[in-house]
Automatic annotation (TrEMBL):
<comment type="similarity">
    <text>Belongs to the BlaI transcriptional regulatory family.</text>
</comment>
<dbReference type="InterPro" id="IPR005650">
    <property type="entry name" value="BlaI_family"/>
</dbReference>
<dbReference type="InterPro" id="IPR036390">
    <property type="entry name" value="WH_DNA-bd_sf"/>
</dbReference>
<protein>
    <submittedName>
        <fullName>Predicted transcriptional regulator</fullName>
    </submittedName>
</protein>
<dbReference type="GO" id="GO:0003677">
    <property type="term" value="F:DNA binding"/>
</dbReference>
<keyword id="KW-0238">DNA-binding</keyword>
<keyword id="KW-0804">Transcription</keyword>
<dbReference type="GO" id="GO:0045892">
    <property type="term" value="P:negative regulation of DNA-templated transcription"/>
</dbReference>
<dbReference type="Pfam" id="PF03965">
    <property type="entry name" value="Penicillinase_R"/>
</dbReference>
<dbReference type="InterPro" id="IPR036388">
    <property type="entry name" value="WH-like_DNA-bd_sf"/>
</dbReference>
<keyword id="KW-0805">Transcription regulation</keyword>
Length: 123
């Protein structure tokens, strides 16, 4: 199945569903920060996520309990690949240097990354 890109609002709701693993609209709403969106807004976005293949549901009468159909890891892989291909010519080196230039990586993180690279080399 082809994964589609999520809007910011859709991704926010998916983050909650990944954390909850399953829940009704009211359960999702409880996890959202203030000011909370309207119930109908959350319900509509969850139905859009269902149409996109991200979410499934179990019916309990007229109520639906929703659950993720795509794991957070699957979407993370998709989003990372899209970022790498779209902005960094599929180069980890280009992406790493971008974050270093923007001061998004400190020395401790750079050191940890170097240790990971050494570990991978030695496998």
């Amino acid at each position: 199945m082809e994964i589609k890109e999520l809007t910011r609002a859709e991704e926010q709701l998916m983050q909650v569903l990944w954390q909850l693993q399953k829940g009704f609209v009211k359960d999702v709403m409880e996890q959202l920060p203030e000011p909370k969106p309207a119930y109908n807004t959350v319900s509509t976005i969850i139905r859009i996520l269902e149409t996109k293949g991200f979410v499934g549901h179990t019916a309990f009468g007229k109520s639906h309990e929703y659950h993720p159909l795509i794991s957070k890891e699957e979407y993370q892989n998709f989003a990372t690949d899209k970022l790498m291909n779209g902005y960094f010519d599929n180069s980890v080196k280009h992406m790493f240097s971008y974050f270093v230039k923007k001061e998004k990586i400190d020395l401790k993180e750079a050191d940890e990354i170097m240790k990971l690279i050494e570990k991978l080399k030695n496998q």
